[in-house]
Automatic annotation (TrEMBL):
CDD domains: NUDIX_Hydrolase (cd04685). InterPro entries: NUDIX_hydrolase-like_dom_sf, NUDIX_hydrolase_CS, NUDIX_hydrolase_dom. Its cofactor is Mg(2+). This is Nudix hydrolase domain-containing protein. Keywords: Hydrolase, Magnesium. It comes from Schaalia turicensis ACS-279-V-Col4.
Length: 185
């Protein structure tokens, strides 16, 4: 598999690299949302914004994985009991590194004080394909989503409804960046 670790991305019955992942929808004290901007090294002209997170390791539950990934990718320390949710379960199919992959993701909400971010825990692949991390004002993010890729696709609207609390509803989303489609149940 071009660029994806086979231990982290086992091949499923349909022949796709496929993993479980956990992500954090992280708000600062001013209601700004932290996102990363990445690109595909095989398609460097294509860039998108996405939430912090990554693969669930053996023995972890989704909340533990979300906190570990948050620390590795930003240096921010949160305990699993600081997370709210899961608020989204997303089944994503996407093209990356010249392959089509699948990822099933659990999203959690958290709040933190804005701090200086660090990338000390980034993998070589993350250093290669992540361009920046930024705190987004939600109105600016909604505008950005109109003219660029932000994942999950309805993130700006959902974040607007969650900045002051979660309504208890788990959103189930299927998205495919390969064919630019999505559905919410």
């Amino acid at each position: 598999m071009s660029g994806l670790d086979e231990n982290e991305w086992p091949v499923d019955a349909d022949g796709y690299p496929h993993r479980q992942a956990a992500r954090v929808i992280l708000f600062d004290e001013n209601g700004r949302l932290l996102l990363a901007k990445g690109h595909d090294r095989d398609q460097p002209e294509r860039q998108w914004w996405f939430t912090i997170g990554g693969g669930i390791m053996e023995g972890e539950n989704p909340a533990e994985a979300a906190c570990r990934e948050l620390f590795e990718e930003t240096g921010i320390v949160l305990e699993p009991d600081a997370l709210v949710g899961p608020v989204i379960y997303r089944e994503a199919t996407f093209d990356f590194l010249s392959i089509t992959a699948k990822q099933d993701e659990w999203f959690f909400i958290a709040h933190t004080q804005r701090v200086t971010l660090n990338n000390d825990g980034w993998t070589d692949l993350e250093r290669d394909v992540i361009d920046e991390q930024r705190w987004w004002d939600l109105d600016e993010l909604a505008q950005r989503a109109l003219n660029g890729e932000v994942y999950p696709l309805n993130l700006a609207n959902l974040a607007q409804s969650w900045v002051n609390g979660w309504d208890g509803q788990l959103h189930r989303i299927r998205e495919s960046s390969a064919c630019q489609g999505s559905a919410e149940e």
